[in-house]
Amino acid sequence: QEKQYPTVVDKPPPAPLPENLWGEEWRFATLSAGKVVEVFTEQPIPILVMPEFLQPINLGLASTVSVPGVVIYGGRQSMRLARWLQEARPAALNYVAGAPDGLVLEAGLVDRWILVTFTDPEVVAAGRVYEQRKQESRGLHFLLVQPDDSGMTFSGFWLLGAED
Length: 164
Known about the structure:
It is built from four helices and nine strands; from the N terminus they run ββαβαβαβββαββ. By secondary structure, it is of the alpha/beta class. It has one domain (15-160). It has a five-stranded mixed sheet, sandwiched between helices. A four-stranded mixed sheet has the order 1-7-6-5. A hairpin with a 4-residue loop joins strand 5 (90-96) and strand 6 (101-107). The two termini are 27 Å apart.
């Protein structure tokens, strides 16, 4: 009887996001688990990725649980960024402590991208809270790309889960 070993895939260090894609600003955000699906299925969003197995109800999350996420205001690059992300196949967006701290997008099977780095103590604290909330939401989190903060138009929304 031959032993089966799990396949371990080496992950390369994260690469910086191509500069021509980066949006104008970004922020951490939260949505209540009860609203996640409702809010975004009612909007005309060109790229909407909401796998059924990640929907809060299927994870057994109470509707009051805060689902953390990151919102990127892409300005005129908004659609280009959303299309690039869709091709990259986002899997998770993690806050990584370091010098500097940053947000790393895990995508596809092994791709890793540095979305942003920061040293501001308030942003660092928000990053820690973001990771804490991910624990409370069973790893559920989201990435939202929109042109601006008017809340009128959206370019892309991805519901993401914890890495296995």
